[in-house]
Amino acid sequence: xxxxxxxxxxxxxxxxxxxxxxxxxxxxxxxxxxxxxxxxxxxxxxxxxxxxxxxxxxxxxxxxxxxxxxxxxxxxxxxxxxxxxxxxxxxxxxxxxxxxxxxxxxxxxxxxx
Length: 113
Prior knowledge:
Structural class: mainly alpha
Strand content: under 5%
Shape: elongated
Number of helices: 4
Radius of gyration: 19 Å
Order of helices and strands: HHHH
Helix content: 55-70%
Mean pLDDT: 88
Distance between the termini: 22 Å
Oligomer: single chain
Low-confidence stretches: none
Largest sheet: none
């Protein structure tokens, strides 16, 4: 895979991650607002999930998206250094299909197993 294609894929993926992070920040703000306005004991509400549970879920999704963003930035550095698409373990080329699915992949499929 050439550097231009790799950069384009990373740009697309980063836009998706940034969009996801914006939505998660909005969700977090909404949960904080709901919690501030609520006097109910949501931990014992039989109607559904708790605000604490929802916060935990939003936080986990946010941390995952931030981790993915860091991986994308590291992949950009590999593009710049000419090591993008090279397995960090065995030094073989990472298959284009794998890079299309995970443009920030650091390992070939065999080494990732």
